[in-house]
Amino acid sequence: MIRTNSINADCDHSPAANDRCTQCRNWSAFWLLGLCNNFAYVVMLSAAHDILQKQESGNSTGSIGTTLVTNFANASSSNSSRYDCNPVSTAAVLLADILPTLIIKLVAPFVIHKVPYGFRVLFCVFMAGLSFLLVSFSSAVWMSILGVIFASIGAGLGELSFLSLTAFFSRNVLEGWGSGTGGAGVAGAFLYSSFTQAGLSPRETLLIMLVIPFLMLISYFFLLVSPPSLPQWKRSETECLAVWPEERQHLMDESDDKEQQEESTRAEGTRSSPLSCTEKLHVIKGLLKFVLPLGLVYFAEYFINQGLMELLYFPDFYLTHAAQYRWYQTLYQVGVLVSRSSLCCVKIRKLWALSLLQVVNAVFLLFAVRYLFLPSAWVVFVVILYEGLLGGAAYVNTFYFISMETADRYREFAMAVASVGDSFGIALAGLAAFPVHTHFCSE
Q1: Measured CA angle at 407 (ends 401, 409), to 5 deg
Q2: pTM for the full model?
Q3: Burial (Cβ within 10 Å: 0-12, 13-18, ≥19) of residue 80
Q4: Under DSSP, is residue 87 helix (H, G, I), strand (E, B) or coil?
Q5: Tell me: the pLDDT tens digits for 5-29?
Q6: Backbone angles phi, psi at 231, to 5 degrees
């Protein structure tokens, strides 16, 4: 079993220093895991407009690296619509990016505990690398979509696995994970937009990004300090509280507040039997108050991202249509990063309020598309940034309060199964975006 048992020499001065160093390494590892896990997913959505911008010739054999580099502004419009639409909504890429994730999240929480974490991480790394290679070297859109699907499989399994993994560590790693996933949005969208804007082809850009799967390997196997109870390469015969009291106390900084210390003391100190079906159903029922508002937030924001963003086009703006779309995605991810990193400063328990505000956002932009009353793309930039703030806050606060309010025995399962909420909302948003795209583009 690969485990990082030794602490860096500069951390060996005292037990308290060791604890702080271990916490710092684990927080950093989860930040990088969040970044790497969501990176391919974000890049595929940022490239959605380019993936669907292909040569019209039915017998074209050119590579995607050649066909996608065509500037959208100079490309032939798919129809006479005032919205300058692609033939297919970018929701097609969204569905390819989320449906495999949704299926995995619906099924995996009930069986994934049979697969040790080490093998899960290796599989996620393989899927991410394969997705970048397929999309970059594809000669047809269907091959690109297949690459997107592989990215979705890796990201979906990675998200539920790493969220479950947080149960083996002190709760502050959730802050690192949440911030890292937000960082993936900014890094993925910004780097893709910047590289392509600088003149690199999508193929060259995606090949450069192959470094990300290798970074995930380093983060998990060399930076993360795994506790002895973690089933790394061997299947755990029993479901258990991942971090036992003595380990949890060891991981806690001396400055942790009294509430955290009391919570650690109350934790059970013996391994428990596997969860029964009745217990799992009971846990799922208790999670609905978290999953439903999270799903609604993500439905509204991805309806905006993949159903409306492409239609919020300003012909007189200095950026091309494709560039406007890419920077919409980038600003959205900036908002997500800020709010997913805010858990140490502010915690929001009223998740339904975030959901309703996001729905208002979607309705506002839907009317903006219909009546074209917004004067400039700058207004859209502000609204999109605000949208990202709401979405990121909903995500990180949902999983924080699940972690706080779920008994230790059920936490690993609860964190995995709750991750279906955002994916379910995103999938519904992708389905809703198709008729909206068809309606507006037929005008």
Answers
A1: 130
A2: 0.73
A3: exposed
A4: coil
A5: 444 444 555 666 678 888 899 999 9
A6: -75, 85
